[in-house]
Amino acid sequence: MKTWMKGAVLAALVVPAMAMAEEAKGPSCFDIKYSLDFLNAYPQAPSICEEVKVVDGVKYARMDATVVKQEKGVTTVAFKDVFGNKLMNLSVEAVEGSMANVGGKEVAWKDLKAGDKLSFFLPERRLDVVGQPGRGKPGAPILFKAVGE
Predict the structure, then answer these.
(1) Are 130 and 101 in contact (CB under 8 A)?
(2) Can you give the pTM of this predicted structure?
(3) Which of 25, 34, 63, 102 has the fewest CB neighbours in a 10 Å radius?
């Protein structure tokens, strides 16, 4: 068989297998549908999405941030895009009793320190953000307020 024919046959076998492997991984950040209110407030959010988790049939976009400072109940966090470029800072004001996700562990907001790496989970088509996906009742919501640059 000629070399080009072998290449064509190999491609015909490999491409569908790759597509099936991608499908088996589950949804990606491109599959999340953001609420219009959320996109109006945070138009850069889609470029911050790191991964998508599906829990109980609900898609959650994971967004990571780093604590910049903690002051009088307001935590300033910095978001970067998936390429590591700084996109925005937000001040995060958490309701009493809210927990943050730091390296997969729950930590009280009041105990956060500069340099802590946080993960936020945004349920698809919703405006609220939770610390862990899939809880029946995720607890107190996290309130966000944009910080000027």
Answers:
(1) no
(2) 0.70
(3) 25
